[in-house]
Amino acid sequence: MSFRPIRYEPDMEHAEPGEGETARELTETMRSIAETTYRDYGYPVRSVHAKSHGLLRGELRVTDGFAPAYAQGLFARPGTYPVVMRFSTNPGDLLDDSISVPRGLAIKVVGVEGERLPGSEGQATQDFVMVNSPAFGTPTAKAFLGAAKLLAKTTDIPQGYKKAVSAVLRGAETVLEVLGGESPALKSIGGHPNTHILGETFYSATPFLYGPYMAKYSVAPVTPMLRALKGRRIDVAGRPDALREEVMAFFASQEGEWEMRVQLCTDPERMPIEDSSVEWPEEISPYVTVGRIRVSAQPSWNEARSKAVDLGMSFSPWHGLAAHRPLGSINRVRKPAYEMSSGFRATHSGCPMHEPRIADEIQI
To answer: CATH number of 10-161+198-361: 3.40.50.720, 2.40.180.10, 3.30.1460.30, 3.40.50.11540?
Structure first.
């Protein structure tokens, strides 16, 4: 390893002015989205990433042979763990896939032992909550709240209007990409290209402790059939669940593998903790593979799986080991908001959240 990771120091984190109030408002905003969609659908869904496109069961094999700095927490020693993967899109309502928005991937690793984060005592999981961008869409918790409030205002807008806006924004984004640029803002409100979700690389975007160090995570497809889907356009015309159908078609007969990668912080100035909108440069610290996720052919979505995962399982960056504690203001304000969202679903469905401890307790 030709670079030196920086050790975490408490003064690298600092609360934003009014951060407690920001957390309270974010939780209220997320609850307003949940209440709106509950009235619309008659059943509860997530406040963000409500629509799932693939619900998969697989295994994570933690590898070895990397530099000692990467052997931390879950990745401290080789081992194999069952996992649940949930592919989704960003909004808190269940949109037609012709309304193209950013994508997400949540991973729950089961059977993880060690000192736990506050609020996850007694559990045996490590969650990773990711998006298909190496940086977060907003720099601060307050800006994140502003984006959430905008999302809340659009929740009840008719889908026909959203489709029209999305088509216009996709056109604008295509022009930008032809000119060599892109706009995260355009993509976030409907300008994301209609490409295959399984071709995406996903990132934690926000930083985390990594033992004594600090890191971001990434999950990247590595098998040839998955990599061939990168950037592949899909036809969404007349297909409200096109992404789900494409994932189902793939896993009906094929398996897939992804690498789990870690990027250690080596320069606190260029790789800040409290501004998650900054992409950490790979030229000063590349992503290093610490594990491999394998998924066999399986039915990637059905009503039983949706009930078990969409309704009965929660994913949070705060479900996990103390060695992987979330860092920065955005992660701090996410904690009560995520707890509210899972609690809302449990209360309004009459079904408590299911947090498996061993493989046999995974219900898909």
So the answer is: 2.40.180.10
Residue-level pLDDT, tens digit, the chain, 364 residues: 567 999 999 999 999 999 999 999 999 999 999 999 999 999 999 999 999 999 999 999 999 889 999 999 999 999 999 999 999 999 999 999 998 889 999 999 999 999 999 999 999 999 999 999 999 999 999 999 999 998 888 876 544 433 444 343 334 333 333 334 444 543 444 457 899 999 999 999 999 999 999 999 999 999 999 999 999 999 999 999 999 999 999 999 999 999 999 999 999 999 999 999 999 999 999 999 999 999 999 999 999 999 999 999 999 999 999 999 999 999 999 999 999 999 999 999 998 899 999 999 999 9
HSE value, Cβ hemisphere, 13 Å, CA-based, for 355: 18
| CA-based nearest residue to 99, from 146, 31, 159, 50 | 159
Exposure class string for 93-121: b at 16+ Cβ within 10 A, else e? bbbbbbbbbbbbbbbbbbbbeeebbeebe
Q: What are the structural domain ranges in the chain?
A: 10-161+198-361
In angstroms, the Cα distances linking 361 to 36, 124, 125, 208 are: 32, 12, 12, 28
CA-nearest of 173, 133, 156, 153 to 276 is 133
Inter-axis angle of helices 329-349 and 141-154, to 10 degrees? 40
DSSP 325-337: -B-SHHHHHHHHH
| Token digits of residue 72 | 């931390």
Q: Provide the H-helix boundaries in the chain.
A: 19-41, 141-154, 159-178, 184-186, 224-227, 242-251, 303-305, 329-349
Q: Is 132 helix (H, G, I), strand (E, B) or coil?
A: coil
CA distances from 273 to 11, 286, 350 (A): 11, 17, 38
CB 259 within 8 A of CB 220: yes
